[in-house]
Structure formats: C-alpha cells, structure tokens
Amino acid sequence: MTRLSSARLATSLFDSTFSARPVVVATAPGRVNLLGEHTDYNGGPVLPVAIERRTAVAAGSADDWIVASTMDGKMRGIDVDAPLGKSWTAYLAGVVRELRKLGAAPNGAHVTVATTLPIGAGLSSSAALTVAAAKALSLLAGRRLTPPQLAEVAFRAEHDQVGVRCGRMDQTVAAQGERGTALLFETATGAIRRVPFTARLWVVDTGLPHRLAAGGYNQRRRECEEALALCREWRPDLAFLAQLEPDDVPEMDRRLPSPLAARVRHVVAETARTRIAAAALAAGDLARLGELLVAGHQSLRTDFQSTIPEADYIVETAVELGAYGARLTGAGWGGAVVVLAPTDREARLVAEVARGFRDRFGRAPEIWSTRATSGVRRESVPV
Ligand code: GLA
Questions:
Q1: pTM, 2 dp
Q2: Which helix (H) or strand (E) covers residue 169, if one does?
C-alpha cells in the first residue's frame, strides 16, 4: 500500500473544507533520538535524526482563524488570544503568538493539518506540528524565517505558550535535520554538527502513548533541578548537570541522596556516551554505535527509571537476534524503541520481535523503518 504524503492529505482536506487551494503547504518531520536522552534540559548533547513520517500544514489567507485536521476531521474557529488548553489547536495558537513577536504572523488564516506520524509515540509529533506551522504561517505572512528561527518559535510556542516543559531537541531537529545525517546538537552552546548517517533504522512502537506534559517527565526535571542546586553547594560554578565529568561521579554519589544521585549518573554518562556515539557514527562504526544504544537504554532503565517492560523486552530480544543495538527513544514511560541492525538480519529480526511481543503482551506492535531525512520544508502544492 502506498502511503499518501502528509502534504497531499493536508491539501485534499483543505480542498474539501474550504473549497479552495491552499496558498502554502509546509511539512516537518518527526524524529528518533539516537542518544542523549534527558540531556537537552541539562545542558548536554543530543543526537537525533529526522524521520520520514511528517506533519503537513496547509494554509490560505483569511481574516479569521479556521482550522481542521485529519485527526478529528472537524472544522472549527479558534481564538488565538484565548487561554490555551492542551489540544492540537493550542499548539497552533502558540505558534501564531510567537510569530507575532517577530512581526511574522498573518492576521488570520484557514489552516489544515495532516500527519503520517503516530501521535504520542515519543516521535515528536508536537514539534513536527509547531515547526511546520511556523514555516507555513510565516510564509503566508510574506516572511522567510531561518531554520534556527523556526525552531525557536516552535520551542517558545510549546514551552512558554502551551506550558510543556520540553527541552530544545525536538524542534531543533524538526527544523534543522538534513537527509542522510544525524544532528549532534550541543544544547549548552547551540552548536550543531551534522554526522553522516545513511543506515536504515527500525521503529518498534510499544503502543503505549507517553504523556509528556505530565507525570514522569516533569518529575525527572524537578529531580534534576534539585540535584543541580545540591551540586552547587560544592561546585558553585556549575551551570548545568552535564558539565560534571565522569570523574566527579564518586563525589557526587557521596553527596546526593537517592534517587538524585542515580539521575545525575545517567546525565553524566549519557553526555559522554552521546559524544562518543557521534564519533563512532562519523567513523562509520555501526557496531560501536549499537553498543552505546544498549548502554544508553540500560542507563535509562536503572538510573533514570524511564523505561517500561515492553521497551525492555524489545531491546533485549532485538539484541539477542543480532541487532547492533536498540534503545527506547524520546521522553519514555511509553513510546517507541529504535533498532539498528545489520542489513542481512533485519527481515528475520523484525518478524521475530513482532512475534515475541505478541506472545508476551497480547497485541502486535507497529513496526516500520526509516532513514534520516530533511527537516522542515515548503512543499509545492500537490495537484
Ligand atoms: C521529550 C522532550 C525533549 C527531550 C526528550 C528526552 O522528547 O520534548 O526536549 O527532553 O523528551 O530526551
């Protein structure tokens, strides 16, 4: 079955909703993060890849704001100045408010949204939406923002307007990803290095949606803030947890109570691991990268405690079946596992993981593959 592109879906919804062609269509990708989990709000590096499933925003000029999405099919007016809830329209309104600050928002628009990304699967569907919306709406207003500007608008929309306590990884890769590369993003400095990465990745969805704005994620952020405050008692110059070196860990372990010490252990080890992984990738050493993925998962499991049994099972099984490595990607507490495997083992491995998962958990997981693709872009309006 051929999948319709998100751009085509958004355009045809625009046609049927507004009886018109959109003026602008923009799309942005979801992402998997290879390494650097829970480091982006601790000043550490991340190593995400833009994936081939995208969200499209189609927009046409109007005096009011009317929106529709393939997710719920309903057409509705939105008041971008009213208090924001947590629905997808809040993310759109957040983008408009942030674009206004740059003088880059239209006065109104008719908008449709379509996506080929699973929602809430830890693959960054919200950043795909905010980045694509920032691009489409700013173009509609006659402005061409740079990818870093689009990432910042999208981050501010989610973080400041909607109130999701995310870091900057997702919006950055959705805006700045490039085909055939992973993005080493140093969140403390904003520095970006593109590392060639053309291998196929498998995404195994646990089917358990994570809840980013609530629960575990916010609790871990609080724990990291608390740990940073305590570390500053002996390291007053410490700006971020990721500045601690592996050599500092024994001292930190002595000083911090449980579970804060374990959280910091993860951040410090993950920071080092992410930079080593970028070097392994640059050297084309997928076997080494795979080992680091597994070590990263183990650290999330024991020290950060953000994995779930379904993900642990997929990682263990994939490695037993000869994968280079696998890891729960994204915030955690649900979501998807990313698997990297030698080409000659992929077919059997995927079939066996699916079978084992079904036997164990009573349902078939969704599994699909992707390669690193490009970040946000304007699409020609499909006919
Ligand atoms: C979510 C957040 C990101 C990052 C990851 C965990 O995806 O949006 O900013 O914190 O979790 O690495």
A1: 0.97
A2: helix 169-176
Q: Is 170 labeled as catalytic in the residue annotation?
A: yes
- 376 in Cβ contact with 30 (< 8 Å): no
Lowest mean per-residue pLDDT among 67-81, 163-177, 180-194, 243-257: 67-81
Q: Which residue in the list 170, 237, 285, 312 is annotated as catalytic?
A: 170
Nearest CA to ligand 1 atom 1: 331
| All residues at 6 or more sequence positions from 276 whose CB lies less than 8 Å from its CB, including other chains | 292
Name the strand (E) or helix (H) holding 65: strand 65-69
26-49 pLDDT, tens digit each = 999 999 999 999 999 999 999 999
From CA 133, how far away is CA 49, in angstroms rounded?
A: 20
- Amino acid identity of residue 32, one-letter, is V
Single out the residue of 126, 104, 227, 217 nearest to residue 170, CA to CA. 126
Average pLDDT of span 51-66: 98
User: What residue owns the CA closest to ligand 1's atom 8?
Assistant: 166
> What does the alpha-carbon distance between residue 68 and residue 60 come to, in Å, rounded to a whole number?
12
What separation in Å is there between the alpha carbon of 331 and the centre of ligand 1?
5
